[in-house]
Request: fold
Amino acid sequence: MIYLYLMWTFFKIGLFGFGGGYAMISLIHNEIVVSHQWISSTEFTDIVAISQMTPGPIGINAATYVGYSAIRNAGYTSHLYGILGSAAATFALVLPSFILMLIISRFFLKHKNNPNVASVLAGLRPAVVGLIAAAALLLMNRENFGSYDGDLRTFVVSILIFAATFIATKCFKISPILLIAVMALVGVGVYSI
Reply:
């Protein structure tokens, strides 16, 4: 039964995944951590970090990991059940996009110069920006940044790393890949002391 819940949950996420994986993060968090409680908020933060570092879209990587973890956390001990959970979640996440792209591509080729179509696409752009901003705000939590009243050192270091990477990317146009590598080394240096 959990496989059907996984598939339905990720199918719904896939339906509203406009803007790619980053726009899906807040939807995935709400369904997986808040509604179904298949994984903890800390595990979700780890999933986002791992999904960003591994090849492939972040939404698919997250669905694969969550599918496996949800099955294992539900008490199924065989790795085969976890792999089936990964496949079910990933397939369900991709299915709506596949179906919509088949439909939209036929429609778009016929009506790409129609002003109504251009208006719909213009209306979707701010929604995508809002979903990505929601994902960024969702990741600004105690698990990622620490807290002012808890672990002050982690909080200060996290804010400094965040500010440095933001400024380096925005003002100096430094490659995000280089910044990930540099900040990983900074993190190892700071937190191993």
